[in-house]
Structure prediction request, 159 residues.
Amino acid sequence: MKILVLSDTHGNLSRVYSVLNSVGSMLDAVIHCGDYVEDVYTLKNKYPDFRYYYVKGNCDYGSSEPADETFVLGGKRFFITHGDKYSVHWNTDRISYKGSELGADICIFGHTHIPLIENYRGMYIMNPGSISRPRGSAGCTYGIVKIEDGLLTPSIVEM
Prediction:
């Protein structure tokens, strides 16, 4: 299983289209961690064959989508959120504790626009960065999560 992980697209999908057009045939699902949750609706119309998992972000004013979501894919428990409710600009402590409480194998968030992969007591903490509005020293980035033979492997791809 291979999952595309996005966050903070902010209405600019041109690079997302490039990724989906080049590797989309190898993907099973798309995760979007907010800040322009409307982009997911556009993607669902253009690429209806994927499963989509998504949450709203702090810039998704008036959205009725959930702020947090927990689900199982490929036998692994995912916890996704935008991150603003968990003070991720300061550190990953609160989000790590929440993911651990939920029994997550991986906790995925956005908000900072800065890519990150950490391991907290056997649980991965991942921020795919931003494919449209990067911050920090990284360029435009997105994430890939692979689940093969019961092993979950997250990675960051820089464009």
